[in-house]
Amino acid sequence: MMKRIIALTLIAMLIFPFFAKPALALQNEQAEAIQQFLDEARRISGAPSISVSIIIEEEIHFFSSGTTNDENTLYELASVSKAFTALGILYLEENGFLSTTDSIADYLPWLTFNYSGEPVDMQDVRIEHFIFK
After folding, report:
1. How many C-beta neighbours within 10 Å does residue 37 have?
2. Among residues of the chain, what percentage have pLDDT more than 70?
3. b/e map of 72-105 (b: 16 or more CB within 10 Å)?
4. pLDDT above 90 covers what percent of the chain?
5. Cα 110 from Cα 47, distance rounded (Å)
6. What is the phi/psi pair of residue 126, to 5°?
7. Which of 24, 73, 85, 103 has the smallest C-beta neighbourhood within 10 Å, fewest atoms?
8. Are 126 and 100 in contact (CB under 8 A)?
């Protein structure tokens, strides 16, 4: 189920930019497609509600599906950014930009850790340690 939610979110992130017309205005068909996408994502995920705000230039468009809510409704996000970061890293690996077995020092040479008062050899710390362990 979580894979479906992540896949739907990624598809939305990939599709939404293509909705933009040169005038950068949100067309009725685009708004309807976004609303249908949210309704389907909520149905599949079983979430009580989903809300999305899209900003085009300085115009804000708010979409919602499910229980009554508006642009002032608060949601608890928990630690979802970790999943999106991991998904982004796996996407980069799939497209040949990096490998999860690469040393973290290759990408963040300034990053250092100490363990039990001793410095950690950052060449031995792999990207996968931050995702899978």
Report:
1. 19
2. 74
3. eeeeeeeeeeeeeebeebeeebeeeeeebeebbb
4. 38
5. 41
6. -105, 155
7. 24
8. yes
Q: DSSP for the chain?
A: -HHHHHHHHHHHHHHHHHH--TT-PPPHHHHHHHHHHHHHHHHHHT-SEEEEEEEETTEEEEEEEESS--TT-----TTHHHHHHHHHHHHHHHTTS--TTSBGGGT-TT---EETTEE--GGG-BHHHHHT-
Amino acid found at 36? Q
**What one-letter code names the amino acid at 41?**
A
* Residues 1, 64: Cα–Cα separation, whole Å: 21
Beta bridge partners of 49: 66
Listed residue (64, 93, 63, 86) closest to 133, CA to CA = 86
pLDDT in tens, 95-124: 999 999 999 999 999 999 999 999 999 999
| Partners of residue 52 on adjacent β-strands | 63
